[in-house]
Amino acid sequence: MRIPLESHRGLIKVGDTTIDALTPNLANNSTELNAAANKRIKEYTQTAGINYELLHTELAVYRDDEGVKGFDDHAVHDVLTRSGIKKYFFSEDISADEWFECDLATAKNAITAVKEGRKSLLPSETSNSQDPIIFRPEQREAIDKTLRQFRRGKQMLWNAKMRFGKTLSALQMVKEYGNFRRILILTHRPVVDAGWYEDFKKIYYDTDEYAYGSKTNGETFESLERRASQEECRYVYFASMQDLRGSELVGGKFDKKKTKTTVGSSTSPKSSLPPTAFSLLSAPNGVTSSRNSKNTSPTLSAGPLMK
């Protein structure tokens, strides 16, 4: 629903309610679903004299290999949040957490994602009027030299200063190369995850061939591996050394009170895709950044950072 006021412009409220339905397959926006939704909304808007617009109603059930399942609005909220869609709070009261800065199409896509077992939206489901990025000459040079290097070898080192555009350039190189099935981005700190995700959406806005995942954004690792094993997607997964320090994969010890992150564990589904992978390891201050360099072009050579 939305409220036609200037204070609510560009905001969608995603909520749920219950319905006593004899028909299990009610159509979207059916009379029964709309009546149940209006009844719930009026319970908290009518006394305040607030006008609203009911935009869409849909039965929150789906069928998978295990049978018929239901879900609530929190599952849809999680998809929106992991897709980079921001919640909007009108005050310091964080209990009113059902408002999102998105349009109706994006909210409906999030419902579909839950029904399909996905944890986030595809790039094409969140990007509107996106134009291709025009790379600067030095960025284009780095991409082209790396593509040529990968035709005869498996390693490449970029030594570029801060703000060169390494993230966008690396993702563009992966997209153009087209042969990578699984891409691991490993950095020192998790704080740059949001930046990688935003740049991923800028590069892959026009294709759903690749999906993005991390501890907090996009798909979970388990979801990506499940989809990849069924040849539904290729993926880019972001992890940080801080995330991996407790992983049993590298012999770490877990704190049972904290969430653990396991990448590539033995419990992951066996993949039928070729084991082609691309990994990018970032130094603490960026990918081998040279802060004092006066040159805009990077130093490109065979090396251990990109392989």
Can I get a quick summary?
This protein is α/β, with parallel strands linked by helices.
- As residue ranges, the low-confidence spans are 259-276, 282-295, 301-307
Q: Could you report the average pLDDT, rounded to the nearest whole number?
A: 79
Helix content: 25-40%
Backbone structural class: alpha/beta
CATH-level-2 architecture of the largest domain: 3-Layer(aba) Sandwich
Instruction: Tell me the name of the CATH class of the largest domain.
Output: Alpha Beta
Q: How many β-strand stretches?
A: 10
Whole-number count of domains: 2
The largest beta-sheet arranges its strands as 7-8-6-9
Task: Give the biggest beta sheet.
Answer: 4 strands, parallel
Which series of helices and strands comes N to C?
EHEEHEHHEHEHEHEHEE
CATH topology of the largest domain: Rossmann fold
Q: Looking at the structure, what is the overall shape?
A: elongated
Strand content range: 5-15%
Radius of gyration: 22 Å
Our count of helices gives 8
Distance, first to last CA: 48 Å
Describe the 3D structure.
The chain folds into two domains: about 5-120, no CATH class; about 135-305, 3-Layer(aba) Sandwich (Rossmann fold), CATH 3.40.50. About 30% of the residues lie in helices and about 15% in strands. It is built from eight helices and ten strands. The protein has helices at about 30-45, 75-80, 105-115, 135-150, 165-175, 195-205, 220-230, 240-245; strands at about 10-15, 60-65, 65-70, 100, 155-160, 180-185, 210-215, 235-240, 275-280, 300-305. A four-stranded parallel beta sheet has the order 7-8-6-9, sandwiched between helices. The protein has a two-stranded antiparallel ribbon with strand order 1-4. Helix 2 (about 75-80) packs across helix 3. The longest helix is centred in the N-terminal third of the chain and has 15 residues, at about 30-45. It starts with 11 loop residues before the first strand and ends with a strand.
